[in-house]
Amino acid sequence: xTTVTELALEDQxxxxxxxxxxWDWQFARIGETSISLRLPxxxxxxxxxxxxxxxxxxxxxxxxxxxxxxxxxxxxxxxxSGGGYFHNDSGRICAPWNRLAYQQIDARxxxxxxxxxxxxxxxxxxxxxxLAAMALRIHAELGGPHYKGRLG
Amino acid sequence: MQEQITVDIxxxxxxxxxxxxxxxxxxxxxxxxxxxMGLDGGDTFDLVYKGQVLQPIQRPLVSFGIxxxxxxxxxxxxxxx
Lengths: 152, 81
Known about the structure:
The complex is a heterodimer.
Chain A: H1 4-23, E1 26-30, E2 34-40, E3 46-52, E4 62-66, H2 131-143
Antiparallel strand pairs in A: 1-2, 2-3, 3-4
Chain B: E1 4-11, E2 14-21, H1 26-37, E3 45-49, E4 52-53, E5 69-76
Parallel strand pairs in B: 1-5
Antiparallel strand pairs in B: 1-2, 3-4, 3-5
């Protein structure tokens, strides 16, 4: 039987897919709970994300930088830099709505001081609680003045 | 010159389609979209056009060079740390 959580996730994926289609991002489902998404940057290059949504909404999604040709995750050449969201040291998107920002989940996660269960109420999450909101935030960072190109 | 601006706005809950007079202030657009899309007015959002955050929000759309049909993004502010 489909659960309320599964229905909510499908709603959120549908919203993101709708935006991706109209904004000419590339969106694809990979299995039941993962998504690949291509976003443009200010310098006309593209970045790919692999977004793992298992246990979303209990936990935030995991945002990996992705190479669709090799399927490699989180390589420096596939990772943007600049600003508060794109950490130069860890390569992680540093926000409470990214599961990989939590050191308890990922050794490269910058934060040991955040509680995963409280990701929605973390003041730094703000309104960034849906998949579309998260993608729009990343898109804004890639297109904004803080973006500094690739890490490697 | 057209007095109306046709907008597609990517929001945290999908795409908003609508029209606004070109003299509509950015803050009025944000309020209208939040209401229409059922988004929490307690959160703060920026309206973004071609990578530019439209600020100050008391300025009208037309003052940012926005005319005709445009795509905008409603981005929750939050913060990266």
